[in-house]
Amino acid sequence: MQPAPQGVTVKCRVTRDKKGMDRGFYPTYYLHLDNDKKVFLLAGRKRKKSTTSNYLVSIDPTDLSRDGENFIGKLRSNLMGTRFSVFDNGVNPERANADWSNVRLELAAVIYETNVLGFKGPRKMTVVIPGMNSDNERVPIRPRNDNDGLLIRWQNRIMDNLIELHNKAPVWNDETQSYVLNFHGRVTHASVKNFQIVHSNDPDYIVLQFGRVADDAFTLDYNYPLCAVQAFAIALSSFDGKLACE
Description:
The structure is a single chain. This protein is mainly beta. 8% of the residues lie in helices and 34% in strands. The chain has 2 helices and 14 strands, in the order ββββββββαββββββα. A hairpin with a 4-residue loop joins strand 10 (171-173) and strand 11 (178-180). Belongs to the TUB family. One of its GO terms (cellular component) is cytoplasm. It is found in: Cytoplasm.
């Protein structure tokens, strides 16, 4: 949950395990540090029996249950699969204690703009995250209900203590006749899922970069102010979008 240290890019790898999909299970995704030791960080899996897409994120690759102590966060989508909210492992506001200290924190929102039919260009993403205080810690945002979350605040342009990021627009390349982004060697396969997230004030500072390197392997590199859970959940949202990925 700690933000990346300033000036350090945390380089990770996401792998997708499709074993068991024939038995009706969803794939499991794993996040490891992309270094010699390949340290395991997080695992995520889509929950079955959920009306909207709902992913659980766990610190134990063998325990992806909602009730275990390893549950650290979740990602849920709207019915269309175009907007996502990321929460930590706190409780629903309906089960709040007296001082609300147990209520879940919202860590991020992701908005995909549906591409116009027939237009195969890159999809537009917006990412909204809590701002940072003067000690470089995340400002805690505990929505009191669904109308108080990051998506609604963003929609109503109530952006106090929020940071709005978006994907960097790829540039058309005449030689390859395709849209391209420079991933500096970290991404080797073309995919509509490849993206870089930036702030409009500084489009050269890549806050988050995600892209395919093999059929079921992706690199995920993130910088301050994101933490691993935010970065992983944003990447998970990109696997999902029904309309968003055409």
